[in-house]
From TrEMBL:
The gene is ruvA. InterPro entries: DNA_helicase_Holl-junc_RuvA_I, NA-bd_OB-fold, RuvA, RuvA_2-like, RuvA_C, RuvA_C_sf. Belongs to the RuvA family. The lineage of its organism: Bacteria, Pseudomonadati, Pseudomonadota, Alphaproteobacteria, Rhodobacterales. HAMAP family: DNA_HJ_migration_RuvA. The RuvA-RuvB-RuvC complex processes Holliday junction (HJ) DNA during genetic recombination and DNA repair, while the RuvA-RuvB complex plays an important role in the rescue of blocked DNA replication forks via replication fork reversal (RFR). RuvA specifically binds to HJ cruciform DNA, conferring on it an open structure. The RuvB hexamer acts as an ATP-dependent pump, pulling dsDNA into and through the RuvAB complex. HJ branch migration allows RuvC to scan DNA until it finds its consensus sequence, where it cleaves and resolves the cruciform DNA. Residues 65-142 are annotated as: Domain II. One of its GO terms (biological process) is DNA repair. Homotetramer. Forms an RuvA(8)-RuvB(12)-Holliday junction (HJ) complex. HJ DNA is sandwiched between 2 RuvA tetramers; dsDNA enters through RuvA and exits via RuvB. An RuvB hexamer assembles on each DNA strand where it exits the tetramer. Each RuvB hexamer is contacted by two RuvA subunits (via domain III) on 2 adjacent RuvB subunits; this complex drives branch migration. In the full resolvosome a probable DNA-RuvA(4)-RuvB(12)-RuvC(2) complex forms which resolves the HJ. This is Holliday junction branch migration complex subunit RuvA.
Amino acid sequence: MIGKLTGRVDYRAVDHVLLDVRGVGYLVFCSERTLSSLPPVGEMAAVFTDMLVQETNLQLFGFTTLAEKEWHKLLISVQGVGAKASLAILGALGPDGVGRAIALGDWNAVKAAKGVGPKLAQRVVMDLKDKAPAMMAMGGTVAQALGDAEAEVIEAPTPRKKAVVAPNASAQSEALSALSNLGYSPGDAAGAVARAAGEMPDAETTVLIRAALKLLAPKE
């Protein structure tokens, strides 16, 4: 199983790139957001990969962060969501946006992805709402995990690129943990933290906790 590729970008298309890894060309399908973040033709790029194995076809899908890859795996586990729909959702919202939309139950945000109808968007939110807190908690460690995934790596020498994560991903993770320790359910805590983080993208942990607690306080 190929878990990561590092090579020269030979060409770019609408939905994929060709990476030349030591003379072997790998066709890697990516979301629009991921494609826009990759370097131009002729430069080196590194992507985490997930392989789809079908009876008559093998496809590689590329991601710039582990969080994006993990969300892809969760999304395609939902009935009716194939790789194309998953990449469309990730391309429209990004991994942090997907987590926020699911935590808040905002299926309209998911529906904004090309080719995703309301019924499928609602199913995504319903099926993954219990898994969003764990993914949000993972956010604080994604940057450290970049490049250390336990997977087969086929690569050529190149400087390691930093992970692209939300400005307060670590703060969100810590706030989520604090609220869970206070006894709030994972779903409620994740929804409050996601809403607070959306309003204050650069907020530190203590600020996020206070804002989330206000959102969770009983309404008079």
